Structures are given as C-alpha cells and as structure tokens.
Amino acid sequence: MAISYKPLFRLLTERELTKSQFREAIGMGTTQLAKMGKGEYIALELIDKICAHFDVQPGDVIEYVKEPKEI
C-alpha cells in the first residue's frame, strides 16, 4: 500500500461526520468507501470531489506511505 486515507478519516472525525454521512454528501458508492478503508486506490476524480467538498488540498485527504523494500 502506497497511499493512505488516514488524513481524510481524521478530517471526518474533526468535522464530526460518519463515513456514511460523508459518502452520501459527495455521492460516493459503498465500493469506493470500502476500497479506501482497505487502503486501495480510487479514481483521482473522486479525490477531486472530496477536495472540492471540504475545500482542502489532496495532501489534506491522502498521504504517501513508503513501502519497505523487500530483500
């Protein structure tokens, strides 16, 4: 996993929103929310919608996590 959505989930907590409320507010499907919970990739278009909804930058909702090198 190279992308983490932890910043987004912290933002939801700060704004006292449940994941379901968030999902419904931006018109996102349950599949995309589940992918985010598993740290899987989602479309950049969805990141754009999230940023527009919260009026934030992409770095405020996702972060890059360096994966350990395999030997």
Which helices and strands, and how do they pair?
Blueprint: E1 3-4, H1 6-14, H2 19-26, H3 30-37, H4 44-54, E2 63-64
Antiparallel strand pairs: 1-2
Task: Give an overview of the whole structure.
InterPro entries: Cro/C1-type_HTH, Lambda_DNA-bd_dom_sf. It comes from Paenibacillus algorifonticola. Residues 10-67 form the HTH cro/C1-type domain. Keywords: DNA-binding. With 71 residues, the protein is mainly alpha-helical. It is 51% helix and 6% strand. It contains four helices and two strands. Strands 1-2 form a two-stranded antiparallel sheet. It is globular and about 45 Å long. The two termini are 17 Å apart.
Key structural traits:
single chain, 71 residues, mainly alpha, 434 Repressor (Amino-terminal Domain), 4 helices, 2 strands, globular, DNA binding, Lambda_DNA-bd_dom_sf
Helix content: 40-55%
Low-pLDDT segments: none
CATH topology: 434 Repressor (Amino-terminal Domain)
Strand order of the largest sheet: 1-2
Output the structural class.
Answer: mainly alpha
CATH H-level superfamily title: lambda repressor-like DNA-binding domains
Largest sheet features = 2 strands, antiparallel
H-E order: EHHHHE
First-last Cα distance = 17 Å
- Topology, number of strands: 2
Overall 3D form: globular
Radius of gyration: 12 Å
Number of domains: 1
Mean pLDDT metric: 93
| Name of the CATH first level | Mainly Alpha
